[in-house]
Amino acid sequence: MKEFDKIIYENAKSWPFEEARKIVPRKSVAEKGYALLETGYGPSGLPHIGTFGEVARTTYVRRAFERLTGVKTRLFAFSDDRDGLRKVPDNIPNKDMVAKHLGKPLTDIPDPFGCCESFGDHNNNKLKEFLDSFGFEYEFKSATDCYKSGVFNEVLLKVLERREEILEVMLASLREERAATYSPFLPISPKTGRVLQVKIDEYKVDDGTVVFKDEDGTLTELPVIDGNCKLQWKVDWAARWAAFKVDYEMAGKDLIDSVNLSSKICKILGGTPPAGFNYELFLDEEGKKISKSKGNGISIDEWLRYAPQESLANFMFASPKSAKRLYFDVIPKQIDDYASHLRNFETQTPDKQVNNPVWHIHNGNPPKPETEISFSLLLNLVSVCNTDDKNVLWGFIKKYLKDASPETAPFLNKLVERAINYYQDFVKSKKRYSIPTDLEREALSDLLSELNKLDENASADDIQTVVFEVGKRHDFVDLKSWFNALYRNLLGQEEGPRMGSFIALYGLENAKKLIEDALARK
Fold first, then answer.
1. pTM of the model
2. Alpha-carbon gap, residue 184 to 265, rounded angstroms
3. pLDDT tens for each residue of 367-422
4. DSSP structure class, residue 206
5. What is each CA distance from 279 to 134, 178, 329, in whole angstroms?
6. For 331-367, b where at least 16 C-beta lie within 10 A, e where not — what string?
7. Which one, 135, 241, 320, 477, has the greatest CB density within 10 A?
8. Are 421 and 301 in contact (CB under 8 A)?
9. Rounded to whole angstroms, how far apart are CA atoms 317 and 354?
């Protein structure tokens, strides 16, 4: 690492570098020769964007740590697929079939989609497919595999040995009724295959077993190792940290108390709790927490229908400790914010670049920006053209950018395709053209007259100046009111683009026709 680079990284203020500094002093990093970061996933429902966000954000911290220290890292994407299914998710087929297997580990339930060995495997594969499509580097870990293969055997026996200390931590957090039967261990019934929350009648430390009453009332003895039992989830989390020597894991704000409890248990097991932070939750259109089982908010596939993946990465980077609505109306701004960060990157000094989101999104090597055409501008072009044919849009783009084509500007081509989808699904049905007021009619006539004076190759800046000057000459409350009038009368929308850029892209003659149509509207 160059000394100059090292100084830049050491002084970087972006949140992934701040988080990475928490990992630097950990003894377990020196012992292992690498830093281990982890993300957790509960595959009771299909993966959602919140799941992706945790992996993306952890990856940002991972890369910052590597630049900061030169030390190797690993990232475990851990699936709690040994958990018993508590309820049937709303957004799956064959609900009746799944309902017959409630209480069983997710990897022991048939796949309702009919394509994988189990429901857990199906949802795990969905997670991996998506993470792979974004190019994340990770190691997938299955709880089922770790329990059954013996990876957790040592820590399971330690939980058995130190159960009294663990119980002291956990019982204080439980209601009296729950505390009466609570045990760190959940035996899996050898008769029904269900994960049982039952009172443990006897702990046999020397034999490595627990004794309990099975569902039919018979007294049953099971080894705690080799997948015969699983741990209650807060203990499970702590045991995983201790077994793997996890150095960093972030979690949602709703898990603050769980993190504290698991940290205490991790210490009882001889481990050191990982560093990390609690991020704010994503909210749906109504301000409610998004849920895997309910399927509210936006799915991964839905976001990618309307926006390229870089925009989603940008959404995840920004202000992780602030709650954010995760709904369709946030998408256009995220696309344009990403493009703006990308354009700014080229002119920034290295100490500013490491704080730019695109540095983290592209691991220090962002691509060159293709064009200054914004997504909001494309949306309005689609709107006035009212088309689902991208070739029509490219006809306008090529006049505006002489050397541009789908082949030379592949990112812009993606934006064109996504803009068509977004317009068809969200904008088209809401278009409502206004009838100009007397004031607006006078100003629009003035604007048409001024545009007639411009050369057909006038720049976006020259056109924007004309639009501003016309607005100032008339009795609008302010210029915002003038632009709102333009959007309502010319585009049929409450909001719109920078008018100079839009008119330059759409063409002067076409723009003048829009004004004429508005003036003719009665």
1. 0.90
2. 11
3. 999 888 999 999 999 999 999 999 999 999 999 998 899 999 999 999 999 999 99
4. T
5. 21, 29, 22
6. bbebbbbbbbbbeebeeeeeeebbbbbbbbbbbeebe
7. 241
8. no
9. 13
